[in-house]
Amino acid sequence: MRSSLFLALTLALGGGAGCIGTADAQSAREVRKQTEASMTLSGVIDIGREGQVERFQLDHSEKVAEDVAAMVDGTVKAWRFEPVLVDGKPVRARTTVQLRLLADNMAGNTMQIRVVDANFDKVRDGNNPSSDDISAVNMRPPVYPDKAASIRGQGVVLLLVRIGRDGKVADVIAERTNLTSVGPGRTMDMLRDVLAKASVKTARGWTFNPPTTGKDKDNEFWTVRIPVNYSFNHKEERYGRWSAYIPGPRQQAPWITGEDEKATGSDLLPEGGIYMVGRNDGPRLLTPLG
Predict the structure, then answer these.
(1) Confidence of residue 243 (pLDDT cuts 50, 70, 90)
(2) Contact yes or no for 32/17 (Cβ under 8 A)
């Protein structure tokens, strides 16, 4: 038996080729069937009076593979927005955009790449709060669970947190746990469970500042998504590079209904942010993603 049950995922996607640690051939093949990879890109979009994209400028295009940059450019330029109105009249508008790309179906040397999420205008985080948004008072990070640390298990837990008007957590669930290390199936299930429980237990003690301005300020409750990262070698995500992970099953929050229930949102959110569910302050994209 190996001394370590888990191997960190590494991915070098050039022409679709992937490499996963030093796992044996059978394990590598099985893992490749489950592995997905994400990339975060950003840029600026000029929107015409009829909602068409007149211009798109990808940030730091020199850091992005040519074929990926070309795919993103073609995708964004084909988008259609709801016309932006000022005093009831359509106007030209400019918006910043943060894009999430997903690469999956990585069998052999082939993969599919698609845009799965787009956030327009400023992506707010805990360091740049707005009075329209939820902001953190106390968000002490969870202690790394001993059970996970002993096998070098790593991953990201996406929490759905329901916040009351007193700023306390009324309810919380682990919506999804994506692993960035791999091992036997039962051990991976155990790792997801351990990381999720540690995150939920800690989050119950968090406190927040509710919105004091904006259209949501009088709500009885607010729901936010918060990613919690467990990693031994934590590094900032490098722009234009793929990050590999094994996606976990998604859990539905019982208190989310109606239109918000349909908007599952991205499970590939940048770390350190507090993301309000059902909010979109930017222009409305009419073209379906994916």
Answers:
(1) confident
(2) no
Of 239, 242, 286, 252, the residue nearest 84 (C-alpha): 286
3-state secondary structure of 190: helix
- Which carries the bigger pLDDT value, residue 234 or residue 97? 97
Number of other residues whose CB lies within 10 A of the CB of residue 6:
22
End-to-end CA distance of the chain: 42
- Count other C-beta atoms under 10 Å from residue 217's C-beta: 12
pLDDT band, very low/low/confident/very high, at 78 (cuts 50, 70, 90): very high
Between 228 and 124, the higher pLDDT residue? 228
The residue written with tokens 């300020």 in the block is 217
Residue type for 256, please?
I
Q: Cβ neighbours of residue 177 under 8 Å, at least 6 residues apart?
A: 155, 156, 157, 158, 192, 195, 196, 248
C-beta of residue 223 within 8 angstroms of C-beta of residue 172: no
Burial class (CB in 10 A: 0-12, 13-18, 19+), 45: buried
Please give the mean pLDDT across all residues of the chain: 81
pTM score: 0.75
What DSSP letter does each residue of 17-62 carry, written as one string? B---TT--HHHHHHHHHH-EEEEEEEEEEEE-TTSBEEEEEETTGG
Q: Which helix (H) or strand (E) holds 201?
A: helix 185-203
Question: Which tokens is 12 given?
Answer: 């070098």
Nearest to 29, CA basis, from 182, 243, 249: 182
The SS3 assignment for 249 reads: coil
